[in-house]
Amino acid sequence: MALAAVPAPGARVLEIGCGSGAVTERLVERGAQLTVVEQNPEMLRAAQTRLAAKDSGTAVEWLEQTASEVDALGHAAFDAVVLSLVLSEMSASERSFVLRESAQRLAPHGRVVAADEVLPIPRIHAGLFRLLRAPQALAGWLLVGSVSRPLADLPGELERAGLDPRSEERWLAGSLALCVAEIRP
């Protein structure tokens, strides 16, 4: 994911939803000039602590705000926007808004790099996936009151946001996808 987002040191990257900072750490290691948006203050602190322990010397701009607030950031300000396991946490309308706004934040030749839970292909696997995922969904609901929703068509959502999907890789029996999409010329 970091390799796709930061092809060379100095790339300006917006990470939406940093969680505990695992991807953030990789982006910094690759030399990204990083702006991070995270709505959960505990996760933001965990990511900051994780990076402080590395003492990389790279300045990171940390923003405690929701993904829907990316519209306040500059247009064409980033070479890449990274979304790791956040889209499945959003409603369909929020995903659509965030992806459209992410596209507007990209500089010419910029790209969105998105990794998330997806429904496996073929559909027979999707039914089995839902059945096997039910205990995890129940635990999530009981512990935190919410459940992520695997995406049915990540490349399609990127395309509807005005982006040109260039690649999709899948793992875990097709239930995890990494998509790279670029701005349409």
Q: For the record, what CATH class applies?
A: Alpha Beta
Computed over alpha carbons, the radius of gyration is 16 Å
CATH H-level homologous superfamily name: Vaccinia Virus protein VP39
Strand tally: 7
Report on the biggest sheet: 7 strands, mixed
The SS-based structural class is: alpha/beta
Second-tier CATH architecture: 3-Layer(aba) Sandwich
Mean pLDDT, as a whole number?
89
Q: Secondary-structure element order, as H and E?
A: HEHEHEEHEHHEE
Secondary structure: helix percent: 25-40%
Order of strands side by side in the largest beta sheet?
A: 3-2-1-4-5-7-6
- Taking the alpha carbons of the first and last residues, their distance comes to 23 Å
Residue stretches low in confidence (pLDDT < 50, at least 5 long) are: none
Beta content comes to: 25-35%
Task: Describe the model.
By secondary structure, this protein is α/β, with parallel strands linked by helices. It has a single domain (2-121, 149-183), classed as 3-Layer(aba) Sandwich (Rossmann fold). Helix content is 37%, strand content 28%. The protein is built from six helices and seven strands. It has a seven-stranded mixed β-sheet with strand order 3-2-1-4-5-7-6, sandwiched between helices. The longest helix has 22 residues, at 123-144. The protein is globular, with a radius of gyration of 16 Å. The chain starts with a helix and ends with a strand.
